[in-house]
Design brief:
The protein is of the alpha/beta class and about 220 residues long. The chain has helices at about 10-25, 35-40, 60-70, 85-95, 105-115, 150-165, 170-180, 190-200, and strands at about 5-10, 30, 50-55, 75-80, 100, 125-130, 130-135, 140-145, 145-150, 205-210, 215-220. The chain has eight helices and eleven strands. A five-stranded parallel beta sheet has the order 2-1-3-4-5, with helices on both faces. A four-stranded antiparallel beta sheet has the order 6-7-8-9, covered by helices on one side. A two-stranded antiparallel ribbon has the order 10-11. Strand 1 (about 5-10), helix 1 (about 10-25) and strand 2 form a beta-alpha-beta unit.
Length: about 220
């Protein structure tokens, strides 16, 4: 069964990138640039998931979500350029299921989407590499059967690496993905979090490898 995604986002380039990624995974995708046209579309069609920008011209994402929840329990992931606790609490109170922050990782976004909508043909929302097991839906990590407590940033980085095994990411790429373009610090913050993540996962059948003058990648003995 084809999964159907509606992207409500006024940034055309971002919407196109997400649409291309999900289309490549076999999803049917439609995009709308504003809330009103999206609500009109939802009167005629149903979707398995909605990606909803918070800040849009006309009515904002919060108002759109409120209207959606009057008639549907379709999973909604908010896309936002800012992460304020009050905004997140407001979104969850309106019925949002999750948040992603711009700029976001498409593989991580896809993992969230699959966790919310359920895997196709009996696949689970569990990700296993080496002795690590990640419950994407519930944000839990086990190592050799023991629960592994990770801070949110380390969890997001680990999930990102495990969704993209073998690929090399520079410090700059990781800095932009996880701290954003507006981050005032330097690339050393990436090294510090990688160091903490390495210490947390220890020996587990996969490792975060430093590639000289290039960046980092996950290497797994199972690959």
């Amino acid at each position: 069964m084809e999964r159907r995604l509606l992207i409500i986002e006024d940034d055309c380039l971002m919407a196109e990138a997400a649409a291309d990624y999900f289309t490549g995974k076999g999803w049917g995708v439609e995009t709308k640039e504003d809330g009103m046209s999206a609500l009109e579309l939802l009167q005629r069609k149903s979707f398995h998931l909605i990606l909803l920008d918070v800040m849009m011209p006309g009515i904002d994402g919060f108002a759109v979500c409120r209207e959606i929840r009057k008639n549907s329990d379709v999973p909604v992931i908010f896309i936002t350029a800012r992460v304020l606790e009050d905004d997140m609490l407001n979104g969850y109170s309106l019925g949002a299921d999750d948040y992603v922050t711009k700029p976001f990782s498409l593989p991580v976004l896809y993992a969230k989407a699959m966790a919310l909508t359920g895997r196709i043909q009996g696949e689970s929302s569990m990700l296993e590499i080496g002795s690590l097991k990640v419950d994407v839906k519930n944000h839990k990590v086990w190592k050799s059967g023991e629960i592994l407590s990770l801070p949110p940033k380390e969890y997001d980085m680990l999930l990102f690496f495990l969704e993209n095994p073998g690929r090399i990411y520079s410090r700059e790429q990781l800095l932009i993905r996880f701290w954003g373009y507006d981050f005032d610090g330097n690339e050393r913050v990436v090294d510090n979090h990688i160091k903490k993540l390495r210490k947390a996962i220890g020996t587990c059948g996969c490792s975060i490898q430093t590639v000289r003058k290039a960046g980092y990648r996950v290497v797994s003995s199972n690959l």
